[in-house]
Specification:
The complex is a heterodimer of chains A (143) and B (581). Chain A has 4 helices and no strands. Chain A is mostly helical. Chain B is built from 21 helices and 22 strands. The chains are: A mainly alpha (143), B alpha+beta (581).
Chain lengths: 143, 581
């Protein structure tokens, strides 16, 4: 296929453009088959190079953007870890004797009352009417 | 003309040759470069890759933090967290300085005028605040001020506040100052775990690849965790009771040592007044230092325990010995009296039970004088007096124990705890050896793994187990028969001894009227689990004795320890009010 294309180009190149050119002995310069093949190879290589460059550029952009994402995630995770550490120390403080002691003192939970007043209570008489229908429950297993 | 043409032709040939040489040279250089490139890029690729990787590797990624210090049950006593130092560069202030100061004043809680003054006075970067916490740091960042520079740094956090401050110590890495466990366990606390190194870029950012360990890259790195023998609950009880005692008697200072006599583990080591380790600079050095290790005191009557132990061990006396207590005695011109001479001017013939019960100085010195000075000295050395106990805390003093020959009066006074000086920890560990069947163990505060224990904790036989048992029985009886309440713990037998001694003058010649009161005791005396030593320095008031000042502190701590440790009574009904004993 490639050879056929090269051959057709060769013919086109051989065709004189104008009779005047012939009179003027201005003949077209014929490309050798080797040169034509080299030119085609160059074209192909240029295409490959351009494609690779484009692909590389695309990949580079992709990597850079992902790297930025990774860095952002790295920073966020690191911050979270340090916050976690900070919260852990806060929790340790809240559970500490020092804190509990301070809070109890502040609230005065363990303070003794200044005076203890004894109050005599009178149990009110409560008449509970026992229904005649209610039966006394005798002892039974599991009760 | 032909000559000329010939010359031109010759010159042309010469030039061609030169050009050929230059060409060859250029080709050679190019070949050399190609060879070098081949060598670098293909031949030695692995070696170079490795070299580059090593150069990019970093082991110090995150802030390396000191390890945590926890108590025997895992309660955190000291941990690490990040603090932030806030700097301001006045040249970078875009808005008005007044506005910036106002914003910073609200967040940092520093008066606006002070911030303004700092900004106006300094033309270069100046520190605004040190050790601000994470939430403040967040607020500062939200302000979006470009003039601020916030530096993250690791620091210590003390969740339990002042608890065990003298034991934990403090850290000032900038000045290289460490105290307490922070000093003795420094190497372990700073011993970072082994991690695979991570590659970083020139700007310090991590180069992530499939080999990168995210735990290493993201987590704050901490040193080893140190577990102490301290029990936070017991420490809290000891500190609270000690503080109450010191405040009640307006004493200069006080200390309590609670230890397990069987293994030398210190369960609580309380000193009053205390301090905040995070702000240790605000306190007087006298308060910050662990004086129970650095300072010595005359042990007074608590020392009689060691005198009688030495005499029993050397065989100069036996358990049933009696001595004539004349109430007072003159030795080499110095008159020595019993403390209760006015009450009991002539006790007469006394036994060891009476000696301890009434804390007879005359009885004690008579027993002490039965030994030779060398015998007495070598026994006291066995109890580790006059030498460091080897406790794993810095700054320990050796105490003062003069070498023989001793004058008679010195030997007599040594017998009841004068003419020598010891640290509270020395006395506690010496008496602990009696509780432990005559085996002295290095008191220690760090809980070592089994394999490391022999390196840090030494043991030695001070007394025969029989001697220790006899002495314990005598001490227990003296507490039981004493009129004072000290050492009388319901349902438990306690062996102990009070002590009251005068404070030596600063120049070391003679004694002042100021007192040290102390009590050392262990229980249950049949199988000792806990030893408590209380020393109160210079209590003030009318009735200042070991039994009235230090004793009640011992009783209170012991009672609370029995409850929280759920200890099994060894003498049900003993010392229980309303029960015949």
């Amino acid at each position: 296929m490639a050879n056929a294309k090269v051959a057709s180009n060769y013919k086109v190149q051989r065709k004189p453009n104008d009779a005047a050119d012939i009179i003027k002995a201005n003949f077209p310069v014929y490309q050798s088959l080797k040169n034509l093949r080299l030119a085609n190879l160059n074209k192909f290589l240029s295409f490959v190079l351009a494609s690779t460059m484009l692909f590389s550029f695309g990949m580079y952009s992709f990597v850079v953007s992902k790297q930025k994402q990774l860095e952002a995630m790295h920073d966020a995770t690191k911050t979270l870890n340090y916050e976690n550490l900070d919260l852990k120390t806060r929790l340790d403080y809240l559970r500490s004797f020092d804190n509990v002691n301070e809070k109890i003192i502040a609230a005065g939970n363990l303070e003794q009352p200044l005076k203890i007043i004894e109050v005599k209570t009178k149990i009110p008489d409560i008449n509970v009417k026992v229904s005649s229908k209610s039966k006394e429950i005798g002892s039974m297993l599991g009760y | 003309m032909p000559n000329k043409l010939y010359k031109i032709s010759q010159d042309s040939n010469k030039n061609n040759k030169r050009i050929a040489w230059v060409r060859k040279l250029v080709i050679l250089i190019i070949l050399a470069i190609i060879c070098k490139l081949f060598f670098l890029q293909i031949w030695d690729i692995d070696g170079l890759k490795k070299k580059a990787s090593i150069r990019r590797q970093s082991r110090v990624l995150n802030q390396a933090m000191r390890g945590d210090i926890v108590d025997r049950k895992g309660s955190v006593l000291v941990s690490s967290k990040c603090y932030y130092d806030v700097y301001i560069d006045p040249r970078q202030i875009r808005d008005s300085a007044d506005e910036v100061s106002q914003k910073l004043s609200i967040v940092l809680g520093i008066p606006k005028d002070i911030i303004l003054k700092k900004i106006d006075d300094e033309k270069r970067t100046v520190i605004l605040a040190k050790n601000v916490d994470m939430s403040t740091n967040k607020k500062l960042r939200k302000l979006g001020l470009r003039c601020l520079d916030i530096i993250q740094k690791p620091g210590r956090d003390y969740p339990q506040g002042k608890l065990a401050a003298h034991i934990l110590g403090y850290v000032n890495p900038d000045a290289g100052i460490y105290a307490g466990v922070e000093s003795t366990a420094q190497r372990a606390l700073e011993d970072m775990p082994e991690f695979k190194a991570i590659e970083t870029s020139a700007s310090g950012e991590i180069i992530y690849d499939l080999k990168t360990d995210p735990t290493r890259a993201l987590n704050p790195i901490k040193g080893k965790k140190i577990t102490l023998t301290l029990d936070t609950v017991v420490q809290h009880i000891a500190e609270v009771e000690l503080r109450k005692g010191v405040e009640k008697y307006n004493a200069d200072r006080g200390c309590v040592v609670v230890m397990n006599p069987k293994n030398g583990e210190i369960l609580a080591f309380a000193l009053a007044p205390g301090y905040e380790p995070f702000n240790y600079r605000k306190y007087d050095q006298k308060i910050v230092k662990n004086w129970a290790l650095t300072d010595v005191y005359p042990p007074g009557s608590t020392f009689k325990v060691l005198t009688i132990a030495s005499a029993l061990e050397t065989g100069v006396i036996n358990e049933n010995i009696t001595v004539m207590d004349t109430g007072k005695i003159k030795i080499q011109g110095y008159e020595i009296k019993n403390y209760d001479y006015s009450k009991h001017p002539f006790p007469g013939i006394i036994d060891l039970y009476y000696l301890f019960e009434h804390s007879s100085n005359v009885g004690s010195l008579k027993v002490g004088l039965m030994m030779s000075d060398n015998q007495f000295y070598s026994m006291l050395r066995k109890f580790n007096l006059g030498q460091k106990t080897g406790i794993d805390l810095p700054g320990e003093s050796s105490g003062i124990l003069p070498k023989p020959p001793w004058q008679k009066v010195r030997q007599a006074t040594v017998s009841f705890g004068y003419s020598l000086a010891a640290t509270p920890i020395q006395m506690a560990s010496a008496v602990a050896s009696i509780a432990n069947g005559g085996v002295w163990i290095t008191p220690h505060i760090i809980k070592y793994p089994e394999e490391e224990l022999p390196l840090h904790v030494k043991t030695k036989q001070t007394l025969q187990p029989e001697t220790a048992k006899k002495l314990t029985r005598i001490l227990e009886h003296s507490i039981r028969n004493s009129k004072a309440d000290v050492g009388k713990i319901p349902n438990f037998t306690v062996a102990g001894k009070t002590g009251t001694s005068n404070k030596p003058k600063a120049n070391g010649l003679g004694y002042t009227k100021e007192m040290y009161t102390s009590f050392v005791g262990f229980f249950p005396s049949t199988n000792p689990e806990v030893l408590i030593m209380v020393v109160i320095d210079n209590p003030k008031g009318g009735n200042i004795w070991g039994s009235t000042v230090a004793g009640p502190i011992f009783n209170e701590i012991a009672a609370q320890m029995i409850r929280i440790r759920n200890m099994k009574p060894d003498a049900p009904g003993l010392h229980v009010k309303g029960t015949a004993q």
